[in-house]
Amino acid sequence: MVSGEKDERFTSGTAVLDFGSRSCRPCKVMEPFLESVLSEYPDIKLVKIDVEEEPGVASKFEIRGIPHLVFLQSGEEKGRLSGGHGSKRLKEFVEECLSKP
Fold first, then answer.
1. Residue positions annotated with a catalytic role
2. Model confidence pLDDT, tens digit, residues 28-63
3. How many CB atoms lie within 10 A of CB 33?
4. What is the set of domains in the chain, with CATH numbers?
């Protein structure tokens, strides 16, 4: 991505950015839970970002550890969640973010 260029993954609609890597075991364990929860919200897109393949994106969002989720609505950050979590906490996170103005 060229500096100053807008990335549609982050600027349009509602998205959960899932920062992780192929070598991150907690990321792999959490993945099916996250996908299951988000299947209940068809308007929310899941954007997986491998921090090893896209370090500039991880830096832009100041990601210091993985797994790390960032919830965006129309490019505006509504919440973050770090660490591995199960379905219950992930659903709470999504609901908390959706309820923010």
1. 24, 27
2. 999 999 999 999 999 999 999 999 999 999 999 999
3. 17
4. 9-99 (3.40.30.10)
